[in-house]
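I would love for you to help me understand the pair of lines that follows before we discuss the fold together.
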Amino acid sequence: KDVRTRFWATYGQVAKEHDDEFLERNNSDMDIVLIFSGLFSAINTAFIIAMQPNSTTTVLVQDTSPNITVSSSTASDKSPNGTWFQGLAYVALSFSLLAAFGAVLGKQW
């Protein structure tokens, strides 16, 4: 019995050290993922807003300065490449938010 007790005590100690090291490493990795996905989402959102044909910034400029004419793009100005780029921007934003959600779940687990 004494041999088995020492084995399980040693096993418990080694397993705890391994688990603590694993959790520390993955916790810092998830912090990096959260920071990167937050910055990427913010920049990507700014580009998506700028790509909108009737963005709120154009409306705000027109409301605050009635003497200045601001040319806004219409639906006929859209090219298929612009539509593809906008779609890819939305997909990238979705994946970035999904990665942030996964990192938050991982940190809480």
Summary: Residues 32 and 103 are 9 Å apart (CA to CA). DSSP finds three helices and no strands in the chain. Helices lie at 2-51, 56-64, 80-108.
